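W.,

You were right to be curious about this one. When I first looked at the sequence I had no strong expectations either way, so I just let the prediction run and decided to look at it fresh. Below is the sequence, 68 residues in total, followed by the output.
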Amino acid sequence: MVRASDEPQVYTAGQIAPPGRYVRVDRPSAVEIILEEPGILPASLDGHVAVYERVSMIGPRAAPRRSA
């Protein structure tokens, strides 16, 4: 079993990352990536490997409520 504290907090472009909010830390930018489910972090497209840090986790969404 993997605990949240065992997960890396820094990821590079192309890595599969858990749900959360990520910011790029290798270059100053206002780029923020939000993954609502596990997914691949995007490339920088500037010839450099993008490095992202997870700044917050996103939990599972509650199922929508149905009105009667």
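Here's what jumped out at me. The first strand starts at residue 10 and ends at 12. And, maybe more interesting for your project: The mean pLDDT is 80.

Coffee later to discuss?

I.
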